[in-house]
Amino acid sequence: SREKKAVKRPVPHPRGPRPPHPAMTVMELRVESSEGCSMPPGCFIGVRIGDVQKQGRYEPQRCYNFEQVDRRKNAKIDIYQHVGSCIVGVDPDVKSIHEVKVMSTDPAFTGLRLNVNVRSKRETEPVKPPRAERVIAMKNKAKEYLVKHCIEERLSEAVKAILKHQPDDPTEFLCRHIRDGAAQRAPPAQVANTAAVPQPGPQASAVRHVPIVPFASYYREHFTGSELTKALRRFPAATRPVPRSDADTIRSHVKKRFAEASSSGQLRTVMEQRKMAHLREKACQLLVRASEDCNLLSILESVKVDQAKARGQSSPETPAQAQDLKFLKQTACRVLVQASEDGVLEKSLAEVWNQHPSEMTELRKRAALVLKTAQEDGSLKSVLAECTGKGEPPGLGKEDAVRMETAALLFKAAASGELSAALSQLSAR
């Protein structure tokens, strides 16, 4: 039969072969003529990928499916023209020879006959291994041969030597170098046989054989004094700091800071401030605890009794005690007003509230209960009336005015009923 073949050569990928796609198990090919070209009438298309071949009459819409394509391969496409066909009956149990006549569609091949020999293969006959196994066996055999005779090492040494010496006849130099290397590796009997080999001509003998030196020695001899090495020597090497642990660094830094603070007096100031803050906080806690237990007044009275005994008196005088108590109240009021103006009172109350919110709530409830009880029995009204009816005592200024104004506001709220509503709302919380 006549056959027209068109082999499509694969174009190498610029980035090398692609990795196998795990999801691609079936590949589909469709062959059709390009624009401006026409296929011969009645031709057939054959597509082969690996060991699988698909054939069919040429149809532009026909698809050829190939399964188990796990990597990149070449597809061979053949174009056939149908010459003729015939039918032969075969029987696996009977050995026979048939002569058949081919029904040709081409007038040039009229009367074509074929002899068809049919026979069964015996099971004892060796079975030809698959193509993939044969390819693997051939590759392994080739690798064993290369390793056995050190082909790669010989070629590598020969190329290095020819680049180093650059002889006029590289072919002769390469052959001689390979022969000399083979003579050095061969056993004594083989060396005796190679001694009878004729030496090369005078042109090749002019090249002096130099043994191969290690790469490190060769590099130091030929490349250490190059321009690149001289240029690199102009740049000084960076000095590496002496490594030390982070703990030593932190220790030295803290020691330096403490020495500076001690010499400038900042350390003494900070220590005194911390000591005063601690004393203030402790005094505040004691006063709050004493006021909660209602022992503050008794403690002050005991202090006055101790002072009177120290002066030789049996007991403090009642007018003086009342005057001192009034003075203490005025002093406390003055200190509270000053702290309120400076913002210290608000800051201290906020700190106490953040530390003991439940205690502040309890104090508010107790204060509301006391005010409510005083309002019910009439004592609050009489005290407020007494405070508002008195004039401003001598020796008091802004503090007493604030106290009087507060008393007036409380009296007005008690008279209008706003104080009762506020106390009821506060006690309900």
UniProtKB/TrEMBL annotation:
Region Disordered: start-end pairs: 1-22
Ranges of compositional bias, category Basic residues: 1-18
SUPFAM superfamilies associated with the record: Dimerization-anchoring domain of cAMP-dependent PK regulatory subunit
Record-given protein name: Uncharacterized protein
Origin species: Alexandrium monilatum
